[in-house]
Amino acid sequence: MQVNDYQDLRVQRTITSIYDAFKQLICEKDYSKITVTELARLARINKKTFYRYYPTLDDLLRELQAQYSKAYLDEIADLRYPRDLAKSVAAFFTYSASQGEAYDRITTCTVGSYVGIRQQMINDVMTKTWGQSPEFNQLADWQKQILLNFVEQTGLKVYTTWVANGRVEPLADVIRAATALMQGGVTQYLNLTK
User: Fold this and answer.
1) Domains in the chain and their CATH numbers?
2) Do 186 and 147 form a contact (C-beta atoms < 8 A)?
3) Is 145 strand, coil or helix?
4) 24, 113, 141, 190: least CB-packed within 10 angstroms?
5) Which intervals hold domain HTH tetR-type (predicted)?
6) Which of 113-121's residues contact partners 24+ apart within 8 Å by CB, and which partners?
7) Is residue 77 exposed (0-12), middle (13-18) or buried (19+ Cβ within 10 Å)?
8) pTM recorded for the entire structure
9) What is the pLDDT along the chain (194 residues), one digit of tens a residue?
10) How far is CA 167 from CA 76, 88, 123, 170, 177, in A?
């Protein structure tokens, strides 16, 4: 019994070490330049150990992104759309601001290796939030796409701008600005589609 507990603890330490090294490398260089050899050295494991848990770096990146997505979805699980859009915007910015530089690098990239994985996370979040909205589901498919693109791009662009500007503006001010833009746009749009 204790052997399993010890093994579980060792596995947890190894995974944490891999994650920490991976996040550090994400902050230091472009994803395409990260190697398993370098990650293993930084995590203080051998390459075989890495491959025991992850077939490729892409699998590790997908798992990391899935964890970010799940944690955010857990925070907003009780929100209803569009009614709770302001709470959702605040949750997105507060959550994102607390995740660290690796999260920011993945989330704010506009070209390169992280765009696809970031889009998968966004699609997952949008499906599990807006996809549950009766008002949203009454829209035609093209109208749904317009609404989701607006919400996604507005929130992401405001967050990206805030990060690029060094997070100088108070987070509360950024949340208010993003909420005004998004809530105003969504409200107007839904009224027009009735």
Assistant:
1) 5-55 (1.10.10.60), 59-192 (1.10.357)
2) yes
3) helix
4) 141
5) 12-72
6) 113/30, 113/31, 113/32, 114/31, 114/61, 117/61, 117/62, 117/65, 118/65, 120/62, 120/65, 121/65, 121/66, 121/68, 121/69
7) exposed
8) 0.87
9) 233 455 688 888 999 999 999 999 999 998 999 999 999 999 999 999 999 999 999 999 989 988 998 899 999 999 999 999 999 999 999 999 999 999 999 999 877 778 887 888 888 888 889 988 998 999 999 999 999 999 999 999 999 999 999 999 999 999 999 999 999 999 999 887 77
10) 23, 20, 26, 7, 14
Using one digit for the tens of pLDDT, what is the confidence trace for 120-144?
Answer: 888 888 888 998 899 899 999 999 9
